[in-house]
Amino acid sequence: MESRPLYLGPRLKRLRRELGLTQAVMADDLAISPSYIALLERNQRPLTADLLLRLAKAYKLDVGDLAADERDDYARRLADVLRDPIFAEIDLPALEVADVATSYPGITEAMLRLHTAYMREQQALASFRGTGSTEADPLAEARRFVAQRRNYFPALDSKAEALAEEIEKLGGLQEGGLAEYLRSQGLRVRLMPAEIMMDALRRYDRHAEQLLIDETLGPQARRWQMALHIAYTALRPEIAALVRGASFASETAAQLVRRAAAAYGAAALIMPYDRFARAVEARAYDIEALSGQFGASFEQVAHRLTTLNRPGQERVPFFFIRVDAAGNVSKRLDGAGFPFAAHGGGCPLWSLHDCFRRPGEVLTQWLELPGGERFFSVARSVTSGGGGHGKPAVLRAIALGCTAEHAPKLVYARGEQPAATPIGVTCRLCNRATCTARAEPPLGREILPDDYRKTPEPFTFAES
């Protein structure tokens, strides 16, 4: 049987960008011209077997992964997009969709990008109608910065991993080892009463070369504060380069990114990439078991799971969200293509919101969006603050999720699969007509009168 020519333009471009290379640098690595790289990326030339081997050797990649044909994946993604209700009246046979994806990958990529932009605009419109605000949002800008890099920062991971090895020799990565490392850097760690700390959890006394930590914090929290200080100091050049390499609309956005990078570095220090990734596979993504193994909190482990995107060593891509009881989002990371609502915690049918009624319990749920996309969610409440009389604890809920195809790798999804819960991104973007939990009508739909007929749903709207 004659083999098909291998056209991997989009994949080659994505690989080059993930490696941080220009076309000229990649061309030099592969001993070809930059113009030929451009032709390959535009699918105007097939990837030969010789070039495939050169790619694998130059960047230490698996030939099988590189050679995998993306056309089936393109057909699946295009089919997902065409299930959007906006195309409901168009006859789109599966064979035609597959033919377009196979024969016209460039057109397919354009369609996928256009639909992504359309969904972003729909969400922005829903957000604007809900808030009436047009001001720049530093938090949204910082989140976009992290999302564009798939929440993976190789320079921070590599430096933290090397640092972890150094600290291991001084007593391990627990509280004592971190304190010993800081001592080797001329810094004394002291636990101090709250009145001395002046409402701070951690304070660096530069004059006396002391790191002061609130003595009411538990062991995990004390260790995390030490790791954060190490990240801000030992990883300072890497964090500065990260922030300096971007252009932010405000200093607030830059500071938010700097803070996110320090937290990333702290997590990479106490959960080094290679060791953590191996443990993740061995324990089938059991967050509580990993928490015990690495001495980290449930939330810290869940957050770290979203960062395992090292080329060639990727694990399950997750999305992550943290909300309070009022639905305000305080942290959001997307690595699984989940279309988050711009504001609020999303659909009330999602078990994420049940965590406040069932604190400390791990809640799992299969989810299905209006377009047919299916996800698996793991949610639990987490607590911060407290530690003494007059210091109220704050209860929040976090959810970690992945697409249905990756769910079998999770210990939580094993066994009989229950029916998926139909949810929406936000009421403004959800066209489900029979939802009794709906708070608002969808954008662009005409609301029908209820003079003579009242349904259980808050709104009845025209089908087209």
From TrEMBL:
One annotated GO molecular function: DNA binding
Keyword set, alphabetical order: DNA-binding, Transcription, Transcription regulation
Highest taxon above the source species: Bacteria
Segments passing through the bilayer: none
Keyword Lyase tagged: no
A GO CC annotation given for this chain: cytosol
HTH cro/C1-type domain residues: 12-66
Family, per entry: Belongs to the short-chain fatty acyl-CoA assimilation regulator (ScfR) family.
Record protein name field: XRE family transcriptional regulator
